[in-house]
Amino acid sequence: MSMEDKIKAAATNVEGKLKAAAGELTGDNQLKAEGEAKQLQAEAMNAAADLKDKAKNVVDDLKNAANNALDSVKKKLD
């Protein structure tokens, strides 16, 4: 997860917590629900960033495996 993604998710989570707390304190159920929704959005942002990182790792692993196989073939041809 990039630092930028982490910061955005953390900011969204804090915004959600503040809204939910404000809604709780004022009895504003809509504001509370919006805050809870923001917190869920932050969780989704974190999950998406983690998935992106995992996909990048898989691609990198495949590239390395392909390069290793190619190097092996080249050595055998030499």
Task: Describe the structure in your own words.
The chain is mostly helical and 78 residues long. The protein is 94% helix and 0% strand. The chain contains 2 helices and no strands. The protein has helices spanning 3-26, 29-77. The longest helix has 49 residues, at 29-77. The chain is rod-shaped and about 75 Å long. The model has no long low-confidence stretch (mean pLDDT 94).
What is the secondary structure topology, with strand pairs?
Blueprint: H1 3-26, H2 29-77
Helix pairs in contact: 1-2
What distinguishing features does this structure have?
mainly alpha, 2 helices
Task: Give the structure's gist in a few sentences.
The chain is mostly helical.
| Residues in helix, % | over 70%
SSE order, as H and E? HH
Q: Which structural category fits the helices and strands?
A: mainly alpha
Q: Which stretches are low in confidence, meaning pLDDT under 50 for 5 or more residues running?
A: none
Distance between the termini: 42 Å
Main beta sheet, described?
Answer: none
Mean pLDDT: 94
Which range does the strand content fall in?
A: under 5%
Number of strands: 0
Could you say which overall geometry the principal axes of the C-alpha atoms support?
rod-shaped
Radius of gyration: 22 Å
Continuous helix count: 2
